[in-house]
Specification:
This protein is of the alpha+beta class. The protein is built from ten helices and 16 strands. Helix content is 29%, strand content 28%. Strand 8 and strand 9 form a beta hairpin. Helix 4 crosses helix 9 and helix 6 runs antiparallel to helix 9. It is globular, with a radius of gyration of 21 Å. The chain starts with a helix and ends in an 8-residue tail after the last strand. The C terminus is likely disordered. Bound molecules: biotin. Biotin (BTN) binds next to helix 5, strand 5, strand 8 and strand 9.
Length: 335
C-alpha cells in the first residue's frame, strides 16, 4: 500500500487536480485502489484534497527526490557517489551501517523521502515528515584509524554550510555539528563509525536538514528550529525556489571535496574557515555538562576539533562527548 501511495503522490500537484481515473489508468489499478492508497497519505503527514469529479490535489507541494538533477549538481563528483533513493525507511544511518558491515564501498549513499525512526545525537529522535526534510547517509572509509577522525563532524558541517551558502542560504555552524540560520537549528549531523582504533574505519555520515516545517512538526520539536523555506522567505515572499535535489547534489559535491581533504590532512587546515562560520565564535555561552553549567566565552577550536572556551581562568578544552552549549542572551537557543 505504501508503495502505491508514494507512486500516486508523485503524480499529484498542489496547483491542479489529477483525476482518479488518470491515476488508475497509469498504475493499471481500480479507482477504489487509488482512493485507498491516498487515504493513508495523512499518516505520512501529507494533506491530499479530493473533490468529486475533479480528483486529487496536494495541500502543499512535495518536490520528490530524483537521481538526474542530483547528478547534475554533483558535476564531476557524480562518479564518486553511488546514490540510492528510497520512499521510506526506519533510519538511513541504520541502513548504511548495515551496508558498511557488508563491505559496501566509500561513496555509498542512501537518501530517504521519509524516515520512520530517524535518529539524532545523544539518543534523541530526528523528526521529519514526507517532503519536509532532506535525510541521507553517506559511507566514507578512512585508513588511518578511528583516532584520526577527530574533527570529522566539524569538517562535514563545513561542507554542508558551504553548499547551503553556495545556494543562497546564510548557514552558520554550532559546535560540534549543528547547522544554524539566525541562531535556530536548520539541521544536524550524526556520524557513526565501524572499525578499530588503528586500522581502517568506516564512517557513516548522516545528515538531516529541515526543508519545510509544518506547524504540527514544529510543535513536536523541543528546540528553536528553522527550515530552508523560512530561511529563503523575506517579508512573506520566498526569494527563490530551491529543490531538495539541488541541495542534496550540492552537499554531496562539497562533501566529496572536504572528505578527500580530511583523509589527507585531518581537520587542522579547515579550522579557520570553520571558525569564520561558527555562530558562537567570541560569544558568551553557558557550557552545560553532567555536573552543571557555567558561563564561558568561546575562544577557539583546536586542530582536532575540540572547542576551547575561557571562563576567566585561561583556555580550557571541551570535547563533544562531554558538554553542550547554550547562548546566554535573550534570544536563547535550546540545544
Ligand atoms: C542531530 O542533530 O541530533 C543529528 C541529526 C541527524 C539526523 C540524520 S537524518 C539522516 C540520518 N539518519 C538518521 O537516522 N539520522 C541521520
Amino acid at each position: 500500500m505504501r508503495r502505491l501511495t508514494f507512486a500516486c503522490l508523485r503524480e499529484l500537484s498542489a496547483n491542479h487536480f489529477t483525476s482518479g481515473a488518470d491515476l488508475a489508468k497509469k498504475f493499471a489499478i481500480s479507482r477504489s485502489a487509488v482512493s485507498d492508497a491516498l487515504k493513508v497519505a495523512d499518516q505520512l503527514g501529507v494533506t491530499v484534497f479530493s473533490l468529486t469529479r475533479r480528483g486529487y490535489r496536494l495541500g502543499t507541494p512535495i518536490d520528490f527526490l530524483d537521481l538526474d538533477p542530483i547528478r547534475t549538481q554533483l558535476r564531476a563528483q557524480s562518479k564518486r557517489i553511488n546514490l540510492s533513493i528510497v520512499d521510506s525507511i526506519d533510519s538511513t544511518n541504520s541502513a548504511v551501517m548495515l551496508q558498511a558491515a557488508l563491505n559496501a564501498p566509500t561513496g555509498t549513499c542512501l537518501a530517504a523521502e521519509m524516515q520512520t525512526a530517524g535518529r539524532g545525537r545523544r539518543g534523541r529522535s530526528w523528526q521529519s515528515g514526507l517532503g519536509m526534510s532532506l535525510t541521507f547517509s553517506l559511507l566514507w572509509r578512512f585508513d588511518k584509524g578511528a583516532a584520526a577522525l577527530g574533527g570529522l563532524s566539524l569538517a562535514v558541517g563545513l561542507a554542508v554550510a558551504n553548499a547551503l551558502r553556495e545556494l543562497g542560504v546564510p548557514a552558520e555552524l554550532k559546535w560540534p555539528n549543528d547547522i544554524l540560520v539566525d541562531d535556530k537549528k536548520l539541521g544536524g549531523i550524526l556520524i557513526e563509525t565501524q572499525g578499530d582504533m588503528l586500522g581502517p574505519t568506516a564512517a557513516v555520515i548522516g545528515i538531516g536538514l529541515n526543508f519545510r516545517l509544518s506547524d504540527s512538526l514544529r510543535a513536536e520539536i523541543d528546540q528553536s528550529v528553522t527550515c530552508i523555506v523560512e530561511a529563503l522567505t523575506d517579508n512573506g515572499m520566498q526569494k527563490f525556489v530551491m529543490t531538495r535535489n539541488d541541495l542534496l547534489g550540492a552537499i554531496l559535491r562539497h562533501l566529496v571535496g572536504i572528505l578527500d581533504q580530511f583523509a589527507e590532512t585531518g581537520f587542522a587546515p579547515m579550522r579557520d574557515p570553520w571558525r569564520a562560520l561558527h555562530a558562537f565564535e567570541g560569544r558568551m555561552v553557558d557550557v552545560i555538562g553532567p555536573a552543571g553549567s557555567y558561563a564561558a566565552k568561546v575562544v577557539d577550536v583546536a586542530p582536532d576539533g575540540t572547542l576551547l572556551v575561557d571562563r576567566g581562568t585561561g583556555r580550557e578544552p571541551i570535547t563533544a562527548a562531554e558538554l553542550s552549549l547554550r547562548i546566554t542572551t535573550k534570544s536563547a537557543v535550546r540545544i
